C-alpha cells in the first residue's frame, strides 16, 4: 500500500489506439503494466487478481469503490442543460474564475468567445463532453488557477498566430479521457485532477510541435499517446507520480 496520500484512480482499461471515426474501440480489461493498478490513500485495495479460468486479471472493488465508480459514471452521463439552474450557476462561476475583473453580460453573450467557445452560447459546445466537461474546467480554475490562467491567456511559450480555442479544447480533453479510460476511483476528483494534468500536457505538446490551429487533432493524438505512456510507467502509483503532474502550478 502507498501511504503518501494523493489522488489516484485505478485504470481498468486503456484503449490501444484503434479508432474508427469518432468511436474508440478498446481491448478487454487489462491491468496497467501488469501491476496492481494504482493504490493510494482511500483506495484500500483495488487488486489485479488472475483467476484460474481467466487469463486476464480481474478487479475486486470494495462497496465504497463501487459506489464511487457509479457516481463518476453518473457524472459522465449528465448532459449540459441550459434550463437547469445548477448548470447555469456553474457556467457563471466558470466565467468569474476566468475573468474575475470583467462582468458577464449574460449566459448568451459575445463575451464567451474570449474564453474560446465557438459562439455566443457555450451550451452548444458541451455536446461532446456533457456537464462533466464544465465541471472539469471549473475544477481546473479553482484548484490550479495559475496554470488555468496561463493556458487561457496563452502566456507561456512562443505562441502560434492561430491558437487553439481554450474552452473547446477543454471539452475535447474531457471527451478524450472518457474514451481513453475506464476509471475506478475512491475519490471522484481524481478524474478532475487527471483532466488538469492532461490539459497542461496538451499545451506543452502544442508548443513542442510549434502547432497552429489546423494541427489541433495531431496535438490531441500526441497528447493521448504521451498520457498512455505515463499511465503505463511502473512507478506511477498516484496521479501525483505522473511526470506531467509537475507541469501544474497553483
Automatic annotation (TrEMBL):
Residues 86-231 form the ELMO domain. Coiled coil: none annotated. Pfam families: ELMO_CED12. This is ELMO domain-containing protein A isoform X3. The gene is LOC115726593.
Amino acid at each position: 500500500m502507498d501511504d503518501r496520500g494523493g489522488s489516484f484512480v485505478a485504470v481498468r482499461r486503456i484503449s490501444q489506439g484503434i479508432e474508427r471515426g469518432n468511436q474508440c474501440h478498446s481491448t478487454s480489461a487489462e491491468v496497467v503494466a501488469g501491476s496492481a493498478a494504482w493504490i493510494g490513500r482511500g483506495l484500500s485495495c483495488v487488486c489485479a487478481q488472475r483467476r484460474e479460468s481467466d487469463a486476464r486479471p480481474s478487479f475486486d472493488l470494495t462497496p465504497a469503490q463501487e459506489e464511487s465508480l457509479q457516481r463518476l459514471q453518473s457524472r459522465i452521463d449528465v448532459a449540459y442543460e441550459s434550463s437547469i439552474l445548477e448548470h447555469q450557476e456553474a457556467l457563471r462561476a466558470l466565467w468569474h474564475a476566468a475573468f474575475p475583473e470583467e462582468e458577464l453580460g449574460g449566459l448568451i453573450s459575445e463575451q464567451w468567445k474570449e474564453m474560446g467557445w465557438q459562439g455566443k452560447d457555450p451550451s452548444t459546445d458541451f455536446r461532446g463532453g456533457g456537464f462533466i466537461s464544465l465541471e472539469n474546467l471549473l475544477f481546473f480554475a479553482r484548484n490550479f488557477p495559475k496554470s488555468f490562467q496561463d493556458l487561457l491567456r496563452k502566456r507561456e511559450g512562443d505562441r502560434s498566430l492561430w491558437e487553439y480555442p481554450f474552452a473547446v479544447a477543454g471539452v475535447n480533453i474531457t471527451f478524450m479521457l472518457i474514451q481513453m479510460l475506464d476509471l475506478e476511483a475512491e475519490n471522484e476528483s481524481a478524474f478532475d485532477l487527471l483532466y488538469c494534468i492532461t490539459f497542461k500536457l496538451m499545451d506543452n505538446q502544442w508548443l513542442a510541435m510549434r502547432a497552429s490551429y489546423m494541427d489541433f487533432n495531431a496535438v490531441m493524438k500526441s497528447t493521448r499517446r504521451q498520457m498512455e505512456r505515463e499511465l503505463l510507467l511502473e512507478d506511477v502509483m498516484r496521479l501525483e507520480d505522473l511526470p506531467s503532474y509537475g507541469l501544474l502550478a497553483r
